[in-house]
Amino acid sequence: MINFHKQSIVQATFLLTAIAFLSKILGFLREVTIANVFGASAITDAYLVASVLPGIVAGLIGGSLTTVFIPVFLEEREKKGEQEAWLAANTVLSVSFVYLVIATILAYALATPFLKLIAPGFPADRLAMATLLTRLLLPSLIFHGLLGILTGLAQSYKQFLIPAIGGFLYNICIIISILLLGRRLPPLSLALGNVLGVFLQVILVYLYLNKKISHIKWHIDFSHPAIKKTFYLMIPILIGTSAGYINVIVDRIFASGLPEGSISALNFAVRVRDLPISLFASSIAVAIYPTTSELVVANRNDRIIDLLNKAIRFTWLIVIPASVGLIVLDKDIIRLLFERGAFDSRATLLTAGALRYYSLGLFATASAPVIARTFYSFQDTVTPVVVSFLTIGLNICLNAILVKFMSHLGLALATSISGIVSFSLLLILLRKKLGTIGGRRLILDFSKILLASLLMGGGLLFFKNSLLNFDFKLEFIRLFLLILIGILIYGIAISILLKEERERLKSIVKKYVRRVVKF
Predict the structure, then answer these.
(1) Helix crossing, 64-80 with 225-256: angle to 10°?
(2) What pLDDT, on the 0 to 100 scale, is given for residue 48?
């Protein structure tokens, strides 16, 4: 057995959260750079539409390979040993490369008709710009797929650091590319930064794994059982993951006929909404996945239920107050983050409005990946797919209705409602699968966290409107003080309402701090 130093769930969660925080800062700098150079304009709308096809294929292939390959690799290692597991890994890596090249060629052929499908409201010049950007971005598909497998291998050994910091390279490349080339060659600056960033991520994870082990080799065998199992399990995940991208496509279709800047506003709002998800919820989902996969092999459903409950409750402790804060401070946050350069007050109003409605479903959007990965741990990739497509139908219907009355705000609200329905269905179906999931405790804790968050929101409104009406030049200090006040109110309320979680969180933080000090 290869002697990797394994990170515990707590270590991994805190590590991923810390890295995600730093990466998110860079991510915001990337978005601020795009907003400053291009604003909520035609070039930004074209770039966001052009990113759909490469993003879909990359997300489908790269994300699903990571998700599927962890339980497959762990099962091979448990039953057949290290050598056979790595033979399977090399086979999957090599065969996937061949398929990725084919997928990229097909994507080039489908680029133009696909863009006409998802942006029917685009004028000819904006469509031409989107087509050029798509073709420049497509080589990243190969790198995304390889990165997915390499990340899965690292996470199988509970190594999360190197794959996580790869996001730094991605954001840095985009920022530098835009700053150097954005004014002169807008399309090239956006595409070059993306492709180079993903390529460097692949190189980083490969060099790390190759240094730790020397098992990565080229091996083509289309008949290997691991190939069949991996791609068999990928099919439902590909279909299920595509559901999320279908929702994106549907939103783009509806938004393409709205006033200029609507697509950009929705995108910037999603970036802000996703901050607590990226910092905490995603870290928790990634950290527990290898452990739940191991518990499934060991047939320890009791431990899985306990782990699931803790993960969901901890996620809610963070994202529910965050969503209330985003709703109350929507304009303040968007103004501080983006309103400069080409991003004007009109763009702030468009984006802040979308942020309010996106935030309503934040608790569900953040928690769903934890439940979905629990299904994947059981190698049940079908159930999340069925739920995804049911909610796609709901989202399309809601989009068609709400966009008529609320413009781009209706698209954001439809996304939140669909996310809540998806989360609820997944939780109900998981309860049927496991027999029990501690539902009463979850409902009680959700109610307490929501109450504490609403108390925080009321306090924020009071201080925002009455006590902190500072000059705009002090906007940063004003927002910082409001956030501190919100944290204080929420901390006091949650300490009273959830004593057990307070003690557990305090114990985890103390334990982690002691380890850091020893290190």
Answers:
(1) 160
(2) 80
